[in-house]
Amino acid sequence: MKETWYFVDSGYCTPSFNMALDEALLNWHSQGIIPPILRFYGWKPAGISVGYFQKVKGKIDVDGARQHGIELVRRQTGGRAVLHDQELTYSVLVSEDHEAMPASVKEAYLVISRGLLEGFKELGIEAEFAVPEEKLQTTDSAVCFEEPSWYELIVAGKKAAGSAQTRKKGVILQHGSIPLNVDKGKLFDLFVYPNERVKERAKRTFGDKAVAINDVSKHPIRFEEAKQAFKTGFERGLQIQLEPFTLTEEQLSEVHALESKYKSEAWNFSR
């Protein structure tokens, strides 16, 4: 018999609400209130999430983001900045002690990312896991999709989904971005470059490193279709069944209370 996880379909939410809800779900699972969770969501307005330890000053063009109507938020997980615009975002929250979860962060990525792999298959897209031949190099780039990390999904050698993971209160939180389309002009207006020539070079080479679903799909994939495909993919890849979960008014109030943290300059800029 397959294990039942909760499925949270929160639709399009603000950047601060999205990060607050991930934190609330982590707390509730840690407290034993709810079972493991898979959550899908979008961003409205679009957001740029920076990694927990990432510097904003000198890396992120905050004025450029504002001009595009993009809100900056710091997430709980590490890594580099991600533009959340035309994409499906997922979150998985599961106990570190779960029998299917390895102690190793890298191997836990593999287990959870099987859901992503099956989701791409469901869309008829041939994807595979990134397995870097050498130790991952730390670059000076602030852009997440510059290079794939262990067990992230690649299509034709290009990064197609980016993920990040943290472990807090005995819970694994892994969330990630599955771009449907990427606006390169908008994306590269969000980062600080020494000069325009360097920025244009980075923009040109980006297409050799990353790909969006609609760059490789045989027909246009919209948010709802992607959501259904990856829901099926996670059920198959993790061998679970998903039960819809709707937050109570009291739980929604908890999320809104946490939102103030993700709206504050102290959290978003002071790292």
UniProtKB/TrEMBL annotation:
Q: Which Pfam families match?
A: LplA-B_cat (PF21948)
The chain positions of domain BPL/LPL catalytic read: 32-242
State any single GO MF term. Answer: ligase activity
Q: Does the keyword Ligase apply?
A: yes
Q: Give the keywords, sorted.
A: Ligase
Gene Ontology biological process terms, A to Z: protein lipoylation
| Superkingdom field | Bacteria
InterPro entries, sorted: aa-tRNA-synth_II/BPL/LPL, BPL_LPL_catalytic, Octanoyltrans_LipM/LipL
Alphabetical list of PANTHER family matching this protein: OCTANOYL-[GCVH]:PROTEIN N-OCTANOYLTRANSFERASE, OCTANOYLTRANSFERASE LIPM-RELATED
Q: What is this protein called?
A: Lipoate-protein ligase A
